[in-house]
Amino acid sequence: MRYLQYLLNLKDHHYAHLALTSSRSLYFAGKSSWYGDVLTACERLPFYVRPVPVLADATEIAVYTAEVEKVAETWLLQQLNGTAKLYLIHHRLPSLQVSRCACIGGVLNAQARNRKAEMG
């Protein structure tokens, strides 16, 4: 999301901004594109966050990113506090200064592995 925000802040003549514009055009034409992948990834988060505005500008993306971070942190704490294997850190995570990104990535990877194992 921060990269999308960066791209939206670039001048219109910048090559990366032009690539974003092209990716958006492909998305709106019903074709697969990086922009569509970003929107799909946001829809597939393991917790509820309002849908990202399709025609968002950099400011809206910054607000959306802050919302995702806040909800992700709450969700992560709920996941960790609900796991019997991690009973020693239950309700103590804010004081431990755990890296949110590393933990969220680890929990999401574990969930993906569990889903694959369940599927066969």
Polypeptide structure, described:
The longest helix is centred in the middle third of the chain and has 24 residues, at 58-81. Helix 1 (2-9) packs antiparallel against helix 4 and helix 4 packs across helix 6 (100-119). The protein has helices at 2-9, 15-28, 34-43, 58-81, 93-96, 100-119. The protein has one domain (2-119). By secondary structure, the protein is mainly α. The chain contains six helices and no strands.
Chain-wise SSE layout:
Elements: H1 2-9, H2 15-28, H3 34-43, H4 58-81, H5 93-96, H6 100-119
Helix pairs in contact: 1-4, 4-6
- Number of discrete helical segments: 6
User: How confident is the prediction overall: mean pLDDT?
Assistant: 82
Amount of helix: 55-70%
Derived from helix and strand composition plus strand pairing, the structural class reads mainly alpha
Give a brief outline of the structure:
The protein has 120 residues and is an all-alpha fold.
List descriptors.
120 residues; mainly alpha; elongated
